[in-house]
Amino acid sequence: MNDKPNTELLSAYLDGELTAAEQAEVEQLLAATPAARQLLDELRELSSTLQDLPAYTVGEDLSERVLRMAERQILSDSPTPAEPRPCSEPAPTSARSIFRRLLRPRTLVWPAAAVAVAVVFIMIDREELDRPAGRQVATTEGASEEPEPSSSLRAPKEPTEEAMPAADEELALEKPAEAERGTAATSKTGPPARDADLASEEAERADRLESRTMPEKPAAMPGTEPAAAAPAAPKERNEMRAKVGGGIGMKKAKMPQKSESTARAAKDSPGRGGLALKGSLPRPNGKDDDRGGQSFFGNGRAAGKEIRGGLVHPAENVVVIDLSGEAVRKKAFEQVLSGVGIDFEDDRPERSLVVAGRTLARTELGRLRKKEAKDLAQAKQRRGYDSEETYLVWVEATPAQIEATLADLAQRVEQAGEFVSVWDKATAGAEVQQVRDPTETFRRSRQSREALEAESLRRGRAFRFQFEEKFKTQERTPAEQTAEPQPPADQPQQPPADVAQAENAQSQRAAEEFDAAADGPAVQPEAMTQGQSAKYAQSSQPAPTQRVLFVLRVVESAVPAAAAAAEEPGPAKQ
Amino acid sequence: MNDDAQLIDQALAGHSAAFGQLVRKYQDRLYNTLVHVTGNAEDAKDVVQDAFVQAFVKLETFKHASAFYTWLYRIAFNLAVTHRRRRRPVVSVEHVRETSGIEPIDHRDTPDEAAQRKERRRQVHEAIARLSEANRAVLVLREIDGCPYETIADILDLPVGTVRSRLNRGRLQLREELKETLTIDDDERVS
After folding, report:
1. CB A8 to CB B165 under 8 A?
2. Lowest-pLDDT range of A80-84, A294-298, A314-318, B30-34
3. What is the ipTM of this complex?
4. Torsion over CA: A474, A475, A480, A486 (sign)
5. Which of A60, A104, A167, A259 has the smallest number of Cβ neighbours within 10 A?
C-alpha cells in the first residue's frame, strides 16, 4: 500500500474523522505496522505542538468600533432614491415592522451620521419653548387644554440677502396669517427654504455652534432594514425642486421649516393622550440643560454612544418620507397626521419655534468655508440632488397613532400618489446629515453673549448674531411682543425631574404598549375615525407617547415612482 | 448556539448591543485563527473587524443554517483572501509579534524555557507561514481552532474529502519542516 493514503487515513484517524470502515482499516494497519504507529505519534506530537501555541488576543473590545464601522457602511451604502436597491436587501417592510424597529432605541452611534454633507440645519431651543414665537407652530390637536407644540414648516419665497432680521419680522407677521388657517392642520410642510438668507443664517448658526460636523462621521442605525416602501427614484430632483419650490411657496414664510419643540411641552403636559407634534429635542435625561453627552444626528465627532452636536438623539426614531411638491401643497402629510388625531396647529405662542431646515446647496457658498462648500457639492453630486426641500417634523404621539400614521403613509405610497416612499432612519443619515443642535448655541449665547459676539466679529460674521436677536425676541422684548402675539396663558411647567420621569415612563409604556399591540391586528388607517381621533386627542388618561422625527423630502411630483424607477435603474417601489 | 441565535434576533430587531455581545464573544477566537492564517497581526485585526462589520450589515441574510461563527468565519476567510491579495507577502507571525510587540498569552513560560520556547514558536509560525494558503487555512482551522472537518468544509466551501487531504498534506509538510523542533521537544519532555 502506498504511503500517501495511509498518511491521510492516519491524519483523519487522529482527528476522529473516519468512517467505521476506515477506522477498522487504520486500526488494522496500526497493529501490523510499526511505521504507521510512529507516524501517528509524530502527527499527534505535531498536533499537540500546534494546539499548544499561545493564543493571540485582540487586546481590546472591538464591538464599539465594529458597530460604528457598520453604521458608517450602512449609511454609505444606503440607497438613495435614485439608486437601485440591492437584491440582497430585504424588501421594504410594513409600517408595523418599521414601527417595531422604531420603538426600539438603538444604542448605536448612528446619530453620528453625517456622512458627508450638510443638508439640514436645525435649530432648537428647548429652553424657549414656552416663550412666544412669531412663527408657525404645529401642535397637537389632542392637547385639549395644553396643546403640545408641534412643528411648522414654511417656505421662504422671497430670498433676501442678509435679511435675517427681516426674516424674523416676516416670521412674526406670518404667524397671524397662518393662524387664519385655523387651528388644526396648519402649517406642516412649508416649502423648503430657498432664501439665501436662511441658508446663510443657518450656516452662521452652525458656525457659531462650532459643531462643524460636516461630513465627519456618519451615523448609522443598527436597524438597517428599509422601511415601509422602497424609495422610488425621482427623475430630476433639481428640476423638481425648482418646480416644487415655486409651487410650494406658502405665503412669505421665510423659514424653510420649523418644527416646534417640545421638551417643554412634554413637560407641561406629560401625559396628554393626544399627540403632540413637537419639534423637540430628545431629552433622555429629562433635564433641560443636560445636553452633554447626548447623541444627536449629524455630529461626527463623538464615537460611541455619546455624541454631541447633532440634533437627533440616537434613540430618536426617524422616518424619511419622499413626497411630491403637490403633496406639500395639499398638506397631505398634515392630513395623514390629522387622520390619526395629530394636528398641526398654528399660533402656539407658548411654544417657541424650533426648527429651521435649510439646505446649504442654495446658499451663498461664498459665505461658507471652502470645505463646507466642497462637501456640499460632493454630497449633492453623490445623491444626485440636494435636499433643499426637506422638512423636519417631530411627532410625539401614542404608539397606536404613530403606527396608524405609518400604515397610512405606506398605503399612500402604494397608491403611488403624493407619497413616493417611506423609509426608516437607516437611510435618513444620508439626507439629514448636517443637523446641528442649536440649543447648545442658544444656551451658550445666553451664557456669554459677548463672547459670542466677539467671536462672530472675529470670524467676520456679525450676521449670525442676528440669530441672537431672533431668539431674543422670543424672550418677549417689547419690540417682539408687538410683532408677535402674546402667549395665551402661562403654561404650567413641571420641574425637569418630573418631566424626565414622566417621559421615561411614557417611553417605556409606549414600547410595552406597542409590543402588546404588535401581536394584535394592525391598526388600519381607515379605521381611524373621527371618533378615534377624538379619543386620542381627548383622552383624559395620560397616554404613553413615542417621539418620531419625520424627514419630509420633496421630490418630483410629476414623475410617478414607477416611471422614475424605470428611467433610473432603481428598485421599483413597493 | 441558541444564545447566538437569540442575540442575532435581538440585533435584527434593532438592539445593536446584542451584536456587540457576539463581537466580544468571538473576536479573540477569530483573531487568533486569522493571525495564523494571515501571518500578520495587523491584517488579522483588520480582517476581524471587517468580518464583523460585514456580518452586521448582512445579518439579515444569515439563515441560521449553520452556526453563526461558521458563517462569520466564512466571511472572514473570504476577506482574508482579498486582504492578502492587496498586501505584501506573508510575514511570519513571529516576526510580526516581535516587531509589533503583540505577545500571545502563554502563562507556561518560565524564564528558563522562555528562549527555547520562543525559538520553537518562531519555527512553528514560520513553518505554518510557508504552507500553501489552501493547506494553511485548513490546518489552522483544525489545529488552532479545533474545527471539525465538516465545519472547515463549510467555512472554506470545500468538500470534506478535500479538507482531509489538504490537512494531511499540511501536516506532512509541517512534520517535515519541524522534525528537528519536534525532536527537541520530545527530548525535553523525556528529560
Report:
1. yes
2. A294-298
3. 0.85
4. positive
5. A60
Question: In this structure, which amino acid lies at residue A551?
Answer: V
Residue A222: Cβ-neighbour burial (10 angstroms; 0-12, 13-18, 19+)? buried
Helix (H, G, I), strand (E, B) or coil at A322: strand
Interacting residues of A459 by C-beta distance below 8 A, sequence separation 6+ = A207
Cα A136 from chain centroid (whole Å): 21
Note the pLDDT tens digit of each residue in A230-288: 333 333 333 323 222 222 222 222 333 333 333 333 333 333 322 223 333 233 333 33
Q: How far apart are CA A207 and CA B88, in angstroms?
A: 45
Which A-chain residues 95-114 have CB contacts (< 8 A) with chain B? 100-101, 104-108
Tell me the β-bridge partners of A551.
Answer: A320, A392
Distances (CA, A) of A488 to A230, A482, A484, A485, B80: 44, 15, 12, 9, 66
Mutate to test the interface with A, among B117, B171, B174 (most CBs of A within 10 A): B171
A492: amino acid identity, one letter: P
Say if CB A429 and CB A314 are below 8 A apart: no
Alpha-carbon gap, residue B143 to B125, rounded angstroms: 13
Angle at A424 (CA atoms; ends A418, A426), nearest 5 degrees: 135
Picking from A190, A177, A425, A183, the residue whose alpha carbon sits closest to that of residue A327 is A190
Instruction: Please report residues of A whose CB lies closer than 8 A to that of B186.
Output: 45
Task: Choose from B42, B53, B61, B97 for mutation: most chain A CBs within 10 A.
Answer: B53
Using a cut of 0.80, tell me whether the model's pTM lies above it.
no
Residue type, B63: K
Nine-digit cell at A311?
440634533
